[in-house]
Design the sequence.
């Protein structure tokens, strides 16, 4: 779609420019000893040229009557943003909350609020999935998953008992 | 309704299982060692470091009485791994193996030799000078003479810029006036393939890397950069015998975070176990089979040797302009 | 020892109960890690390496080999089912495989992937047996210069694999190479575009990029469309039908040949062989426009190619002791720990190991086929789970997969970043595949290019004067110019 190409080509042009400038800064080197800047400059310039080509071709070619671009269409943005937020939060709290608790909360959130499933199903499936994946990754495959500070303090407390 | 009940029962059962599996750890005794040890190397699986680490860890396990887990921490080409070890507690549960820390001090940021406790040296792998089998140089002298007459014409394949093969070969070149053009490969393996395919003229490296190709008839070894001839390859003359006073080896030592010797409950046991493991005849046999001579050096001897090595490496690194700016 | 009697001896080793179990365990774990996004054969092999210390050398290799090609079998599963490559070589399978799943043809796709892999694996083993040593020596003719040309060829090909705008595909390929530049420069040890971030020192990481661009973005897209019933209904047959077989016959054979020869080269990457296979199939097909819409040839060819590569990658290892990729390096390590030094003398000094491993490869392929076929029914049924439940698990597995790479939370962050990028890219009509493929090839290209220029002293003509290199450069230019040539010739024909 034309508007897509016009906007995105500008974006990629800037990306290409950025890498080209960065590459020049790192040093192109000589033919005998190519420097770190060789690839960034070559492919950054290539990207820049291609974006310009795309921009020009989009100006000329395609007709306007192709329908509305996606940002004018009714899409479920809130869903996407909430899911993204949940992914970020998962990453942010990964070390503090520990795997099982965090996974439980994550799946519960997704099922209840995004999937719009009932409370009981969300909670029980969240439990099942978090324990199952713990079993699969930590016990079976031996990957070290963070136990979280709650676990640590809980067991330190029980050890003192 | 039934499905939900089943799900809940299942989950409760799993919770119980999980708790059950984790309780024993909190009831463990306090004596060292009472939990697994992490043994970190800064190279990916499959390389020389990794092979040695996996060979030695069962023996460390044997003499320490606790599992030893080999951990490949390759982040930042070793920078992140070194940082992790440096910041670890000197409780005897964090060990590492390396031979490149000395060099990394000058080529990479944030690494200092004396941030660590150097427990013991494991092995020494003297460098061999290898050329392709169709090389015109039948002896080291011929190679050096050509190199002297044609500086920078000879192409040397190293296992990475700033690596020990790079520094060693450059040191040789500088000492005897035959400067090489350094061609960088990603590791010892690719460098060996490079010689075999003939695209470079020579390579310095431990025998372990060249062995297969020599047996395949693709490489020839011109000299052994060791003070004495090797037991396994006694037919290869040393550089000294051939008139070139030069020695260089790849080595690796076991180390840990700073402050270990002060930990009296841990250190004696740890260093004793390390010594026994390194000197275990079975392990020595295995290391010898891949071309590595065991060279146990306890802490004091190792530290003295490191100080000397440090001076030499620093000089070469700066002479070559490889230091981290 | 002639191949036949060697093979018989090999079977006597491979068919012991102990080794059968080891083989099965390897295949099973390999499939499992291949299916789980983020876990590649490298991770599985590294994980199991300690276990193999307690086994005999032959048993150890049998198990590790099982993991390796098991992962190749399993990697295509998630590619087809959820458009997430289980491991890097399966990226190409996503193109048509996922489309087939959306059309209700997940079963035939999985089936042809399994059968194609089996046929490719079996033929490659035969090749291994008979042509191994001479072929391996031929591989040593390849220097850095040749690799530059081969990768150049691969890079030109990958822009034509997609069905969208070619310019955009080129742009994405350029972006892919630029993303690959981020990190520490290998030759000079200088940090490029890392902005001081420690976690970028090693580059962004392949797995976060792949999982983000393919996995996370796909989920986000579906959620945005409120598409909660993705695969419902129309699940047609479970296995490929006669038509599918007829269409796939030649792609499988071509894929096998391409993959087999590619695997012998040091640095032989299953990804490149699957790219070449897909490109070839698209070129020789009478209806190239079907590719990208669910053409079964687009699954049969690449899947056969990557299995053939996985098998022939053992040739340089067993005959010359050269590991051609990271997984082979671990197998080599396992051998050396057992005091077995692979090389030309392996066949004579340890025939039991050499032939035992080869025999077990036959066994392994049979086991994998037997493992994967019934699984197809299970996978297809899994797809029937309402997407509402499925998507949460997909996201979770991606998150975990990203973390387990190096126990770094930053990898999760990178994945999310590329997830957002992938989402936007798809909205703006850009294809992610060229980016990923170029990202993989970029560092290889740069490494060999700079080294080649170092060696030749800056002499660029060396790429054109060395015969093998010239061939691939010409092929690359042919690929680039072909659309123009065919357009010109069509115009000429009109007159």
Sequence:
């Amino acid at each position: 779609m034309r508007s897509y190409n016009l906007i995105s080509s500008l974006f990629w042009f800037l990306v290409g420019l950025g890498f080209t400038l960065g590459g020049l800064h790192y040093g192109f080197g000589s033919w005998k000893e190519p420097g770190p800047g060789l690839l960034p400059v070559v492919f950054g310039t290539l990207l820049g040229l291609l974006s310009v080509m795309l921009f020009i071709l989009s100006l000329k070619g395609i007709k306007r009557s192709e329908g509305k671009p996606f940002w004018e269409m009714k899409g479920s943005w809130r869903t996407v943003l909430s899911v993204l937020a949940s992914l970020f939060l998962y990453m942010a709290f990964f070390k503090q909350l520990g795997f099982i608790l965090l996974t439980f909360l994550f799946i519960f959130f997704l099922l209840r609020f995004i999937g719009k499933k009932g409370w009981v199903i969300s909670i029980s499936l969240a439990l099942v999935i978090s324990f199952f994946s713990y079993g699969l990754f930590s016990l079976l495959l031996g990957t070290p998953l963070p136990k979280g500070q709650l676990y640590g303090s809980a067991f330190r407390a029980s050890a003192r008992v | 309704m039934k499905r939900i009940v089943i799900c809940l029962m299942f989950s409760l059962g799993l919770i119980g299982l999980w708790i059950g599996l984790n309780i024993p750890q909190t009831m463990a005794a306090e004596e060292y060692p009472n939990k697994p040890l992490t043994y970190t190397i800064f190279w990916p699986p499959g390389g020389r470091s990794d092979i040695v680490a996996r060979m030695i860890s069962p023996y460390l396990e044997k003499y320490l009485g606790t599992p030893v887990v080999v951990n490949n921490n390759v982040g930042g080409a070793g920078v992140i791994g070194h940082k992790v070890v440096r910041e670890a507690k000197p409780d005897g549960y964090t060990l590492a193996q390396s031979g490149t820390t000395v060099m990394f001090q000058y080529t990479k940021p944030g690494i200092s030799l004396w941030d660590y406790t150097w427990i013991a040296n494991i092995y020494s792998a003297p460098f061999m000078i290898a050329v392709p089998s169709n090389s015109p140089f039948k002896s080291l002298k011929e190679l050096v003479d050509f190199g002297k007459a044609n500086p920078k014409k000879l192409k040397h394949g190293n296992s990475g810029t700033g690596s020990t093969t790079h520094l060693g070969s450059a040191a040789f070149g500088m000492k005897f006036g035959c400067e090489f053009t350094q061609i960088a490969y990603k590791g010892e393996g690719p460098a060996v393939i490079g010689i075999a395919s003939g695209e470079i003229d020579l390579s310095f490296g431990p025998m372990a890397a060249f062995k297969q190709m020599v047996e395949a008839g693709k490489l020839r070894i011109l000299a052994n950069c060791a003070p004495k001839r090797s037991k396994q390859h006694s037919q290869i003359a040393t550089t000294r015998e051939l008139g070139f006073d030069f020695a260089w080896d790849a080595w690796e030592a076991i180390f840990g975070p700073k402050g270990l010797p002060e930990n009296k409950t841990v250190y004696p046991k740890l260093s004793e176990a390390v010594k026994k493991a390194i000197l275990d005849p079975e392990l020595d046999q295995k290391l010898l089979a891949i071309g590595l001579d065991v060279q146990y050096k306890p802490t004091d001897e190792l530290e003295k040797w490191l100080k000397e090595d440090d001076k030499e490496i620093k000089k070469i690194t700066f002479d070559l302009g490889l230091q981290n700016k | 020892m002639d191949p036949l009697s060697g093979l018989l001896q090999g079977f006597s080793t491979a068919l012991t109960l102990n080794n059968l179990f080891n083989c099965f365990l390897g295949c099973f774990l390999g499939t499992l890690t291949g299916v789980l996004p983020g876990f590649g054969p490298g991770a599985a092999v590294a994980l199991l390496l300690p276990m193999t210390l307690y086994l005999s050398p032959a048993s150890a290799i049998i198990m590790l080999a099982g993991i390796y090609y098991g992962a190749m079998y399993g990697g295509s599963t998630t590619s087809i089912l959820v458009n997430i490559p289980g491991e890097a070589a399966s990226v190409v399978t996503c193109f048509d495989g996922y489309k087939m799943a959306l059309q209700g043809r997940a079963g035939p796709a999985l089936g042809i992937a399994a059968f194609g892999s089996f046929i490719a694996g079996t033929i490659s083993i035969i090749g291994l047996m008979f042509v191994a040593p001479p072929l391996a020596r031929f591989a040593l003719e390849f220097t850095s210069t040749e690799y530059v040309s081969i990768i150049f060829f691969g890079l030109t090909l990958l822009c034509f694999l997609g069905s969208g705008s070619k310019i955009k595909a080129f742009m994405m390929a350029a972006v892919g190479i630029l993303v690959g530049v981020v990190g520490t420069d290998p030759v000079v040890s200088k940090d490029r575009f890392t902005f001081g971030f420690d976690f970028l020192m090693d580059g962004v990481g392949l797995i976060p990029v792949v999982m983000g661009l393919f996995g996370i973005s796909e989920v986000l897209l579906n959620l945005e469309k409120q598409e909660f019933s993705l695969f419902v209904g129309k699940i047609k047959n479970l296995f490929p039908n006669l038509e599918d077989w007829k269409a796939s016959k030649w792609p499988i054979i071509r894929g096998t040949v391409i993959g087999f020869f590619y695997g012998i080269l040091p640095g032989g990457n299953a990804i490149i062989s699957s790219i070449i296979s897909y490109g070839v199939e698209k070129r020789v097909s009478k209806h190239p426009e079907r590719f990208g819409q669910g053409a079964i040839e687009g699954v049969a060819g690449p899947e056969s190619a990557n299995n053939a590569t996985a098998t022939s990658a053992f040739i340089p290892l067993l005959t010359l002791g050269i590991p051609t990729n990271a997984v082979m390096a671990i197998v080599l390590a396992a051998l050396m720990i057992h005091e077995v030094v692979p090389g030309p003398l392996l066949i004579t000094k340890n025939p039991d190991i050499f032939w035992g491993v080869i025999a077990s490869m036959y066994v392994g392929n049979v086991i994998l086929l037997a493992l994967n076929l019934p699984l197809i029914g299970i996978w297809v049924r899994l797809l029937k789970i309402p997407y509402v439940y499925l998507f949460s698990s997909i996201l979770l597995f991606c998150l975990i997969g990203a973390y387990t790479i190096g126990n770094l939370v930053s990898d999760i962050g990178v994945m999310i970043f590329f997830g957002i990028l992938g989402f936007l890219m798809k909205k703006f009509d850009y294809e992610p595949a060229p980016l990923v493929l170029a990202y993989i090839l970029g560092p290889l290209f740069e490494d060999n290019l700079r080294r080649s220029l170092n060696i030749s002293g800056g002499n660029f003509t060396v790429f054109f004067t060395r015969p093998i290199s010239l061939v691939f450069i010409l092929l690359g230019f042919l690929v680039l110019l072909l659309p123009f040539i065919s357009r010109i010739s069509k115009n000429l024909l009109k007159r």
Confidence is low (pLDDT under 50) at residues 152-161 of chain A.
